[in-house]
Design brief:
With 192 residues, this protein is α/β, with parallel strands linked by helices. Helices cover 26% and strands 24% of the residues.
Length: 192
């Protein structure tokens, strides 16, 4: 997304109005319970494998931080920042803003992101992990958006405890025009 100049930045009052009038789809308490369930499942499956977790920036930051503190086993953490948009409105070839530093070859890899929407970027990241020689690849997303527009038919996250309807959502890592990633639950603007 291109950077906005000062004249085109949203006004503070406008951003507050978005939040004040948003529909809360999933409360923070429900998010916390979902993260507990996800952590239990990941611990059961990967707690004895010394996995490496890759946070997909920027959206996966909040989910990753909250998830990792629930995992009581040794693991490594890295991040990646991949996009298909590069300032445009339509996705294209995967572009690595920041590629992973921790090698994936022979490792049990967990990709953590905020939402599985259409999934084209996630599918490309998974392909990258396979080409990098990961021993296994799992995906953990906080929210799966329910619709029939998945980039890869049948694409699902291995670990996901929450579903949302097909609305524009923000909060807990997901943004509204670059803002409100810090909202403590999952929200949808009125009318969207």
């Amino acid at each position: 997304m291109p950077r906005l100049d000062a004249d085109s930045l949203p006004r503070l009052a406008d951003m507050r109005d978005v939040m004040d009038n948003a529909d809360c789809l999933i409360s923070q308490r429900e998010v916390e319970r979902a993260l507990d369930r996800m952590a239990d499942e990941i611990t059961r499956d990967l707690g004895d494998r010394l996995p490496v977790f890759y946070c997909v920036m920027n959206g996966g930051l909040i989910t990753t931080g909250h998830l990792l503190t629930r995992l009581g086993f040794p693991l490594e953490v890295d991040y990646l920042h991949a996009t298909r948009y590069r300032g445009g409105l339509r996705g294209g070839e995967l572009f690595w803003r920041v590629s992973p530093e921790v090698p994936m070859a022979g490792r049990h890899v967990v990709i953590v992101d905020d939402i599985l929407d259409e999934g084209a970027t996630l599918a490309a990241i998974l392909n990258y992990c396979r080409q990098a020689g990961a021993a296994s690849i799992a995906t953990a997303v906080l929210v799966d958006k329910q619709h029939d527009r998945k980039a890869v038919p049948g694409l699902r996250a291995d670990y996901c405890s929450l579903n949302v309807t097909d609305r524009y959502v923000f909060g807990f890592g997901m943004d509204y025009q670059g803002y409100w990633r810090n909202a403590p639950g999952i929200y949808a603007p009125k009318g969207l």
